[in-house]
Amino acid sequence: MKEFFKQGEYVTVYRDLDNPDVILKKFDVLSWKIEEYKKQREKLIAMRRKRNWPNFVIKPIKVGKINVCSMVIKYPFIKGIELEKYLKDNDIDLLTCAKLLQKIEKNVMSMKDMVFLDLANTNNIMILNKDDDIDFFLIDADDIQFGGYTSDLISSLVAPCFEDYDNIMGMKKCLNGEYVTKQLDIRSIYALFYAIMNAEQFFYPLLYERESLNEYEKLLHLLRIPEDSTLYRKTMQTLMEDVPNESVGDSLFELIDDGYSFETYGKDNCGYKHRLVRKNNL
After folding, report:
1. Which of 181, 200, 51 is nearest to 122 (CA)?
2. For the segment 9-28, what is each residue's pLDDT rounded down to a tens digit?
3. What is the pLDDT averaged over residues 137-146?
4. What distance in Å separates the CA atoms of residue 245 and residue 240, rounded to the nearest whole number?
């Protein structure tokens, strides 16, 4: 008996309940060039063999051979809830959000030789609750850049125009030839925060959709991000090509210390929508 988590045109993710500690990812080889699957298999084998693989990221147990029509990869089953579902079921508060983002940022930025291209994806983050504290685990590690291996996929929350990065504000400083830099990881954390905060499908603008920083500022004003906060300054900075991105760091906790919290003003099929509000208007 099988439990299916994803049944797509190219990839199926499932668990055999006779072996519940393992999750399987089956690629449809017929739908993709065989050369691309060979490259992906080579990367997955390197991932499995890498000794200093981060303990917060899933790692293959076994990489199957490419047969006539498919390739199957075995991973450990991680018991938790996808962040996407967590946000639909829980009206998250600013403190919980700040704690989660701080953990993700510290772990991701500590891995200097890795870049997490699809980090800003609420489907790829598993939420683990431990002793009333929120924790996380990253799944679907196919798009991590390490050891000369990279990927063509960057989360749409940070790069909404696939392979047209010249039309995306602030993306050039995240690129170094065919590789991406840790600047992208920092940008991803901001995109992830605003996705958690306001349940939106995109965050960073295209140049031709929002012609200036003034238009982008309207979005931050809608969410009531205070202009004198480090969060506002550093968020705007991620759109500028001549200034390096700065980590979120303590910016969310500074807002909490200043009396800010999330105000819930709506909900849709992506989750609860929040904006910042200051307690007692102090």
Report:
1. 200
2. 888 999 988 899 999 999 88
3. 93
4. 8
